[in-house]
Every structure is written in C-alpha cells, then in structure tokens.
Prior knowledge:
Layout: H1 2-24, E1 38-45, E2 48-55, E3 58-63, H2 78-93, H3 103-108
Antiparallel strand pairs: 1-2, 2-3
Amino acid sequence: MKKKNFIDLAISIFALTAIYALFSQNEDKSHIMSPSQFSTEAFETDRGWGYRIRQDTTTVIEQRSVLHIAGNQGFQTKQQALVTAQLVKHKLDHGIFPPVLSRQELDSLGIRNQ
C-alpha cells in the first residue's frame, strides 16, 4: 500500500511540474527589453553637426541645431551629436514623447553654450 501511495504522489508531483512549466512559458514577457525600432546617425551641416533618428526608413527627427543654445548652432563634434541622439532615442524607446532634452541633460552630456 505504501508503494502505491508513493507512486501516486510521484505522478502527481510530475504532473503539477509539467503543468507549471507549460503555463510559465506563456507568461507576460513585456518587461523584457526588445530591440529598438529606432536608429541614429550624425550628419555634418554648415554650422557643425546634427543628427537624425529614423524609425525603419522614415526620418522621425532631424535636429540640425542644439536646443537651448542661441544662434542656431550645431553640435561641435560628431560624437556630441551621436550621444545626444542616443539619449533622445532612449526616451522614444521608453514612450516619452515628445522626447525633449533639458538644459541639464545637455550639460550632463558635456554640451554647453559654445
């Protein structure tokens, strides 16, 4: 009798484990980061550097000048434009729209009144 109870218990545990494994595969995985649908690129202008952010092949943002800096100046370097574009892309990826950058954010990237 004890052997039959043990076998029944083992089968029950196996069945419960299989059911748990089956349902845990279908759990919501929306919290896992998916690849960005946006890409960034820098381009040279007559006033410095700017950046574009594309969604697939469509340009969604083209920034030729640095916000919060007088004189419609571009970024001093390609690297500054790309780092700024990455921060804007990060905001878009996290549903922040419009993805406006503050003076403090630009300052933290090393972009100041030039």
